[in-house]
Amino acid sequence: MHHKFTVGADQRLTVFRTGGVTLNGNGYFKYMNPTYLPVDSTAISALYNPPGPTAANNFLGEAGVTWIGSTRRYDRVTGLYAQDAISFWDDKITLMYGGRWNDFFSTTGPSYPQQTSTAATGLQIVTVNGVPTIRNADVQTVSSNSAPVYRYGALFAPTDNYSLYYNHSESFQFNAGVDYLNNPLSPSVAENNEFGAKATFFDGALGFNLTRFDIRVTNVRLSFVQGPTDPSPGAYGVRQSGFQTNKGWDFSTNYNKSFSNGMVNLVAGAYQGDIKTELGVRPIRIPNTTTNIFGAYEFTKGALTGFKVGGGTNWIGQRLAPTLTTGVNNGIQTRIDPYSVSNVFASYKWKRWTFQVNVDNLFDKMFITGFEDELWIHTSNGRLVRFSTGYSF
Fold first, then answer.
1. Total H helices, total E strands in the chain
2. pLDDT tens-digit profile of 27-45?
3. Residue 354: what are its φ and ψ, rounded to 5°?
4. Residue 232: other Cβ atoms inside 10 A
5. Pick from 250, 247, 293: which is nearest to 270 by CA?
6. What is the CA radius of gyration of the chain?
7. Which residues contact 303 (CB under 8 A, 6 or more apart)?
8. Which is nearest to 97 in space by CA: 152, 163, 29?
9. What is the pLDDT of residues 95-145, one digit of tens each?
């Protein structure tokens, strides 16, 4: 019998900042000549003046500028964890149990401006702990939560080539910010009950993995269009649903083989899910089907030693998009068609140097990657060629 006990602690501190940027009069960001300025989001109306015939009509002395405000978010995540694993029958059976306690603290609010008050703005700026601050504008949203999560499972491996397992795992996701009613968002807890089988053949050269999963997530964060009785009718808001479930299969396989002058590696996978909300309907944005295949060949002998080439294709299934809210098609659910995208690369290692060329979206396809609402979608960037180099010490 083997016994292994693990205990530990961790903490992660993260600061997110969004800088105030100027936009030109027709609403497009000036990529060739951007101007960044820490602008407090609550002071946008005070900083912006409509463009006029003279440059003195606005804050930067430039006609036709608008503003995006600056924000700062501070997150602190602290965790304590312990896990115990016991193996017996020559390690053919392993039982595991563990838990983790999570604590989360977050503040979100406007960033502090770095300029001083001017006649153009009419703002009163005071110093708080040495930091210039707009008076009455430093409004902070505070979120704080803590909760335990647990994990347990069993592994049965009668031989080195075959194994069966069961795993129950939980994860805790903290949601910073507030909902459309200005209430702090509650944390989301995900539970996954998973059964799986693994097998390898030809001394590990060929492997297969098959998993059946059953996932349930509570307090899911969702965007929606506010109704006539909500605080901001017609505007997008954030709310949390009761739960979402996802039951399905995940399959993957890999193949590795050595040849006289190199080695090939092939990886393929397929996912089939069935995501539903507490109302039994499929949520937007998320595909229920994806597949992928990737291959690479590395030259280890001969004149081409150091070269490596490879590529692959990802296929993304159909996704639901926003429901139309205007026009003759009001109330119709839109959909995003499936798409596939292929990427290739070639690299060369010489001494401590590595040189690599990547071509993303090899066939220059146009497809929808996401959206903000029914009239604002994000499309692919087209073919992208990247060159990178590295040096190892």
1. 1, 23
2. 444 445 544 444 443 333 3
3. -130, 130
4. 10
5. 250
6. 27
7. none
8. 152
9. 999 999 999 888 876 654 433 333 333 344 444 445 444 443 445 677 788
